[in-house]
Write a structure and sequence with these properties.
The complex is a heterodimer of chains A (706) and B (312). Chain A contains 24 helices and 18 strands. Helices cover 40% and strands 21% of the residues of chain B.
């Protein structure tokens, strides 16, 4: 058994690529080794900004000798065929054996693959991995043709056995492997050699390199938290930033500094965003006031002045950044106080939203009109919703959002408050963008909901009207996200309305007006209804995905989509949820089997006779007790179902339907449907029809599988 | 007097001393120290010593200061960090040497940044110039959290793969100098030595021009004429490259007018920047203008690789 150590030492690897590269190195190397016939006990890989490292333990020292028999062409086959076989098998003609086969005499070859030593295999696999490494972006350098994420400087590759460590020799475009590496770029730049992974990791630590990114992240996190705690403050958690920062340093040194007082009245989100995006600083909060008052930066070295110069420099850069932010904030506030939030957004007239859909101002006018229509449906004041729609995107013209696009909406809400607008309007500025994804929260304040719906529906209907729909993986305008947003807004707030009637119509005419006026879109005659149908189908597709994620089967969804009122999403989901739950419970089988038995026989008869048996059955024509019992059971069931359906209590309705199974089964046991008397037969089929009609009230059960 | 003289001599005293030290350092590393290109450019990369010389197979090493103009960054000399006219220091070495990072760190030491006290970091930042049809991979270099340089390995210029690859370094001189000198507002920065007979600040030299050009860029420039100049430059670039390569005056040797044509490409690029600052180019048109400049850059690159300097 041997231990393998590989280090690929390069110029600085982008932090965001390190984790994937670590996984890829491990997978590609171990897969390659195993494929070549080696076995291993354990493998682990690591990354720092300057190195990718793989340690494999318990690697076999040879691949096994393999003997394989291969069947060749028939004796007497053309020479060409035989030559080809010999080449493929790597044997000479006199080594062939002739054996009897069902089809006559056939050549057989014994192919022996000798075992190979681990170093040979490692060198081969490693070279292949280096040359084909899956970097998301790679480059050439100097005069070479080799590609790596940044210039590759050295390759360390050793196999360690009881006999000692040996360099696995390979040469990749002039970079020869060895047993040497280097420590920290500034603190321990000299080369040193290593004999094993343990030796390597220990010497790296002495050379100011923490190899394991988890160890670096933990160190940063613990130090930063303690430092904040010691100052009576608390660190704002940010796992993404932590991973990134851990990928920027080999020897993390945590430093904390105060934010100058003159910046403390900036919104905390501005401080946080500026510090994180530009400086990769963690924010530190005062737990008493909730204000961000300090920052943590992570340096990559120790210094004789305990980081004082570094901290002072960082503080200075931060001050320059925050001066910019404060300048933007002050300017924006001045604009808002002078011209109002609408005034701030005046310039949106000159910003194109989409060349076929007009400017941002055109778009906002459409959203406003739509928000006004939606407001009463969601319990919002129409004027308030219209105002919110008018100002919700004004901050796109603010200097702050120009600098920090990720603060859109949030800045709007600050500026709305500064302008003295109602809190509901201020909140709508930030909330109308939500939900931004499947896990983002759904707003519930009525004004926010109205504008959020109007915004998304305008986007969807607009892009549908100009035929810019998502295809395959391409969805450049994030329309799937917008549709899911509408779905979550409707469901999350239990909103009841017909998407088709109440929204699409108003919206479409509105869009049509804008479009005709500007003569931008050439719309076909029936565009409104055709586009609505298509868009509704798109909504249903998104809803299916959404419900499938919640464990509702596709056939259950289909059964509910087939019902009238399927553009009332809340009702649709209520129905699907009830059906799904009911089918999973014990009575589900009864509902389905009772219905299917009646329906199958009826459908066959209808197909055969070419008529629909939809006359009401007459109980007077019933001949047996079982038949009469079924009539009674149906009367009782219907009495229970009617009020339940009215109350949209699908569970109760389905329970009543499931109770029909026993009488249905008994009926089939006792009675021959195809009686000789045609009147009796018709009556029985009409009875089955009554069962079908009763059961189909809740969902189209013919679409349910099982 | 507790001050140690060697430390004192390590820290530069003024803006021009930083430039002089960089010039000396890169001269010692074997670069040809060139002078700024005599045209308005948006960045040092536009100098033909970088754009064109990054193409082809011939080895090359040059360093120079390049005055650069970004009309939209004009702030009337009031913003502490933003200028519509500023200086870049540019180094280009082809093929990129294996120790380019070390050479670069040496240049920081030369201007008084002691890496034993400062935190120097190479942070991913890929470079792309849509107008030049060029891109490369590299980093922005941070000193104590401040970006002090851009470090790029050119992969493509004018749509051509760079073989060999050039290593390019760009220093934003004002920002770097402000950091080294500990100055908060660029206009307060000493331009020459503070103890010179006539000490001058950056503001003494440039405050008025920043004001004038800011007004010019945002309000004064005649957009009608600029649009016309853009078209003229574009046409002239294409016309010059349309000549028969053979020059009868040189006894029928080839003599392609790449550099004169490239001058027109540079002109078009700057005119576009001015029009952009005047706010008369819409978002959709923007891409089209960038594409037109890129097409010129590509024509020039295609022509350059057919010349001697281009390794033909």
């Amino acid at each position: 058994m041997a231990d393998l150590l590989i280090e690929l030492f390069s110029e600085e690897i982008p932090a965001r690529m390190q984790a994937n590269a670590t996984d890829a190195l491990k997978k590609l190397m171990t897969d390659g080794l195993v494929e070549a016939g080696l076995t291993y006990a354990h493998a682990a890989s690591f990354a720092t900004p300057r190195r990718l490292t793989l340690a494999v333990q318990g690697l076999s020292e040879n691949s096994p000798r393999l003997v394989e028999e291969r069947r060749g062409p028939k004796v007497g086959a053309p020479d060409q065929a035989i030559e080809g076989f010999l080449r493929g098998a790597g044997v000479t003609r006199d080594a062939l054996e002739i054996r009897d086969d069902k089809k006559g005499q056939v050549y057989f070859a014994r192919v022996v693959t000798e075992g190979r030593a681990a170093p040979v295999i490692v060198a081969e696999v490693l070279e292949r991995v280096i040359r084909n490494f899956p970097w998301p972006k790679s480059m050439r350098w100097g005069s070479g043709a080799l590609r790596w994420v940044r210039p590759l400087q050295s390759i360390l590759c050793i196999l360690t056995t009881e006999a000692g460590a040996e360099v696995v020799s390979l040469d990749v475009d002039g970079i020869a492997s060895g047993n040497q590496t280097r420590g920290h770029r500034f603190m321990a730049p000299d080369a040193f050699s290593v004999t094993s992974f343990e030796d390597y990791a220990a010497k790296l630590k002495r050379a100011f390199v923490l190899l394991d990114p988890t160890e670096r992240a933990d160190h940063i996190w613990n130090e930063a938290r303690q430092m904040a705690f010691a100052a009576g403050l608390e660190l704002v958690e940010d796992r993404g930033l932590l991973a990134e920062v851990a990928g920027l340093v080999e020897w993390p040194v945590v430093l904390m500094g105060r934010i100058e007082d003159r910046f403390l009245d900036l919104p905390p989100e501005v401080l946080q965003t500026s510090m994180k995006e530009h400086q990769k600083f963690f924010s530190v909060r005062d737990p008493k006031s909730g204000q961000i008052v300090a920052f943590v930066t992570v340096a990559n070295r120790e210094t004789v002045d305990q980081g004082a110069t570094i901290l002072a420099g960082n503080q200075k850069v931060l001050a320059a950044r925050l001066s910019d932010a404060k300048f933007f904030w002050d300017n924006d506030l001045r604009v808002v106080l002078e011209a109002g939030l609408e005034g701030m957004g005046a310039g949106l007239r000159d910003v194109t939203f989409h060349n076929k859909l007009g400017s941002q101002a055109d778009r906002i006018a459409r959203i406003e009109a739509l928000a006004r229509e939606i407001a009463p449906l969601v319990g919002a004041d129409a004027d308030q919703a219209a105002l919110a729609a008018r100002v919700a995107k004004a901050d796109l013209r603010s200097e702050m959002v120009g600098e920090f696009p990720e603060l859109q909406g949030l800045m709007g809400s600050y500026y709305a408050r500064a302008a003295g607008l109602h809190e509901d309007v201020a909140r709508a500025c930030v909330e109308h963008y939500q939900p931004l994804g499947p896990s983002d929260s759904v707003p519930s304040a009525p004004v926010s909901v109205a504008v959020a719906l109007a915004d998304k529906l305008d986007t969807l209907t607009g892009f549908w009207a100009i035929d810019e729909k998502p295809t395959g993986s391409k969805d450049p305008f994030a329309l799937r996200r917008a549709a899911l947003g509408v779905i979550r807004l409707v469901l999350g707030n239990r909103l009841r309305f017909s998407l088709r009637d109440n929204l699409a119509r108003g919206q479409f005419s509105n869009l049509g007006a804008v479009a005709t006026e500007r003569d931008i879109i050439d719309l076909p005659e029936n565009w409104q209804s055709a586009t609505t149908d298509d868009l509704l189908a798109f909504f249903h597709d998104r809803l299916k995905v959404h419900l499938r994620d919640q464990g509702i089967r596709h056939d259950v969804i289909d059964a509910c989509l087939a019902m009238p009122g399927n553009d009332d999403l809340t009702l649709l989901v209520k129905r699907a949820g009830a059906l799904s739950a009911f089918l999973k419970a014990a009575d589900g089988e009864n509902l389905l089997q009772g219905f299917k038995r009646a329906n199958n026989i009826l459908t066959q008869a209808e197909a055969k006779d070419g008529v629909e048996y939809s006359f009401g059955p007459d109980p007077k024509l019933a001949e047996t007790d079982e038949e009469r019992a079924l009539f009674t059971a149906l009367d009782q069931a219907e009495a229970a179902i009617r009020p339940a359906m009215q109350a949209e209590d699908f569970g109760t309705a389905m329970a009543a339907m499931a109770a029909l199974r026993a009488p249905i089964d008994a009926f089939f046991e006792a009675v021959q449907i195809n009686a000789e008397n045609q009147i009796i037969r018709r009556n029985r089929l009409n009875l089955l029809h009554r069962i079908r009609e009763t059961c189909l009230q809740v969902a189209d059960l013919t679409r349910v599988e099982g | 007097m507790g001050e140690r003289p060697e430390i004192r001599s390590q820290i530069p005293q003024c803006f021009q001393e930083i430039i002089l030290r960089l010039q000396n350092y890169w001269a010692e590393q074997g670069c040809a120290v060139l002078q700024p290109y005599d045209m308005e450019v948006g960045a040092g990369t536009f100098h033909p010593a970088t754009t064109l010389r990054a193409l082809g197979t011939k080895a090359w090493a040059a360093a120079y200061v390049q005055p650069s103009r970004r009309p939209t960054d004009g702030r009337y000399g009031e913003n502490p960090n933003r200028l519509q006219h500023y200086y870049q220091y540019q180094v280009i070495i082809k093929p990129s040497p294996p120790d380019l990072q070390e050479l670069y760190l040496g240049s920081l030491r030369a201007i008084g940044i002691d890496d034993a006290l400062h935190d120097i970091r190479f942070v991913e930042d890929d470079w792309e110039s849509p107008t030049l049809g060029a891109w490369g991979l590299g980093w922005e270099v941070w000193c104590d959290g401040m970006e002090v340089s851009q470090f790029t390995y050119f992969q493509q210029v004018g749509g051509h793969d760079c073989r060999p690859v050039s290593g390019e370094l760009t220093y934003g001189l004002e920002r770097l100098a402000m950091y080294v000198l500990g100055v908060d507002h660029v206009m307060d920065m000493p331009f020459n030595a503070p103890d010179a007979r006539i000490p001058l600040t950056y503001g003494d030299v440039f405050r008025q021009t920043e004001q004038e050009y800011s007004r010019h860029n945002f309000d004064g420039a005649d957009t009608e004429k600029l649009f016309q100049h853009f078209k003229d430059a574009e046409a002239e670039c294409q016309r010059l490259l349309g000549f028969d390569p053979v020059d009868p005056k040189l006894g029928n040797r080839a003599n392609i007018m790449v550099h004169p044509a490239y001058d027109q490409c540079i002109k078009a690029s700057h005119l576009f920047n001015l029009l952009d600052a005047r706010g008369v180019i819409s978002v959709t048109e923007r891409q089209a203008y960038i594409g037109r400049v890129r097409a010129l850059a590509k024509l020039c690159a295609d022509a350059f690789v057919q010349t001697e300097a281009g390794g033909a």
